[in-house]
Amino acid sequence: MFTKFFDWYEKRHDYAREWIAKNNGEVMGCFCSYVPEELVYAAGHLPHRMLGSHEPQDVTEPFIFGMFCPFCRDVLAQGLKGRYDYMKGITIAQSCLHLRQTFTSWRNHVAHDFSHYIYMPNKVQTDHARPYYNAELIKYKEALEKWTGKEITEESLKDACDLYNENRQLMHEVYDLRKGPDPKVTGLEAMVMVASSFMVDKKDHNAELKRILPELKSRNLNRDTGARLMIVGSEDDDTKFIKMVESVGATVVVDDHCTGSRYFWNSTEFTGNLMQDIANRYIDRVPCPTKDWEERSRFPHILKLAHDFNVEGVIMIQQKFCDPHECDMVPLKEFLAANDLPTLFLEFDVTVPIGQFRIRVEAFLEMLGVEELF
Ligand code: SF4
Questions:
Q1: CATH number of domain containing 324
Q2: From CA 259, how far away is CA 174, in angstroms rounded?
Q3: Where in the sequence is the domain holding 226, given as residue range(s)?
Q4: Is the CB of 344 under 6 A from ligand 1?
């Protein structure tokens, strides 16, 4: 049932090359989930969120410090190894310094035709953020128009927003199917569905979601759910890890990270000023810790998710050296403990020690009262 999503995720480069051959556009590497993909799509290009490949590598050391997060190093390795030799454009919207360095190193050392840095404000909790980000997006729109030689019309922009909103609403429907006592979708499947949506034309992704949703609603997974877990923290598309967690007596029923629910959770709301509406969508979205200050609005959101999805325990994952998440881990752990949610903290690298992590996850499940279920 999920073959297409797994194929898209695993054969992302084949899909991108085929898309270029079929469409009169280019692929735009998006270095953060804050890049307003609607603008890229409206310009006729395919937004493609940059992820790593989870393989050991030795090519990034001359270009980025070893104490930058493994995700960033893994992403840069993909460019240095030539895996994106078809990709002509790159864009970043400011989030953390590590990813910014990855973008800068890519811009300096990997061939491309177009690059753009969007000054996405970190202080989104101010009245100035909205007009400021709107102005930044207008600059980005002009840069895209200059590159492609074509105007981005209001109509194409509205169509792109509608298409993206539809994808968000369909992904909400998928996530809703994980709320009940017998989730219809595993954490692994959900992870690949979201990750593939970063790389695939939303028209294709929406069509596939619409195809499988009726079947999903009556699906019986024929497995014990075990402990209902949530994953929160840094970037995470480690399919081997989630597969292991779900093989030892648990189901991941929800997440809060930038390669999961945070990517699609809120939609663009239309008020008659399309560029401002797009800017607002990114200002108002569930924030990354780099933008979640002074008030920490992410914590109540995580708690609400935990209640809505009947979560029993939380795995907090942090990419090694990820400062933004590291700063949040202690207060978040205390916040969750105060709300009766036990946590397990794990530090991720490009590859993770599955054997060691398995023992720690099993101990966590034992603490939650889960007996060996499989
Ligand atoms: S995992 Fe942390 S350090 Fe790495 S890109 Fe994300 S926020 Fe930045």
A1: 3.40.50.11900
A2: 15
A3: 157-368
A4: no
> Would 374 be classed as within a structural domain?
no
Q: Are residues 141 and 161 in the same domain?
A: no
Query: Which residue do the tokens 């190894």 mark?
Result: 81
Domain boundary among 127, 150, 173: 150
287 Cβ inside 6 Å of ligand 1: no
Ligand 1 center–CA 237 separation, angstroms = 13
The preferred substitution site among 35, 69, 73, 238 for testing ligand 1, maximizing ligand atoms within 8 Å of CB, is 69
Same domain, 81 and 181: no
Alpha carbon of 297 to those of 285, 303, 331: distances in Å? 10, 11, 13
Whether residue 318 has its Cβ less than 6 Å from ligand 1: no
127/166 same-domain check: no
Q: Which of 109, 129, 150 is the last residue of a domain?
A: 150
Q: Going residue by residue through the chain, which has 374 residues, state the pLDDT in tens, using 9 for 90 and above.
A: 899 999 999 999 999 999 999 998 999 999 999 999 999 999 999 999 999 999 999 999 999 999 999 999 999 999 999 999 999 999 999 999 999 999 999 999 999 999 999 999 999 999 999 999 999 999 999 999 999 999 999 999 999 999 999 999 999 999 999 999 999 999 999 999 999 999 999 999 999 999 999 999 999 998 999 999 999 999 999 999 999 999 999 999 999 999 999 999 999 999 999 999 999 999 999 999 999 999 999 999 999 999 999 999 999 999 999 999 999 999 999 999 999 999 999 999 999 999 999 999 999 999 998 765 54
Q: Which two tokens stand for residue 106?
A: 């890519």
- Whose Cα sits closest to atom 3 in ligand 1? 322
CA of 281 to the centre of ligand 1 (A): 21
Question: Which has the closest alpha carbon to 107: 88, 133, 83?
Answer: 88
Total domain count for the chain? 2
Span from the CA of 96 to the centroid of ligand 1 (angstroms):
6
**Residue among 193, 373, 168 nearest 286 (CA):** 168
Atom of ligand 1 nearest to the CA of 290: 7
The CATH number for 70's domain is 3.40.50.11890
Cβ–ligand 1 contact at 277 (below 6 Å): no
In this structure, are 199 and 321 located in the same domain?
A: yes
Which residues are CB-neighbours of 66 under 8 A, at least 6 positions away?
Answer: 73
Same domain for 63 and 136, yes or no, is yes
- pTM above threshold 0.85: yes
> Hey, what are 72's tokens?
């960033």
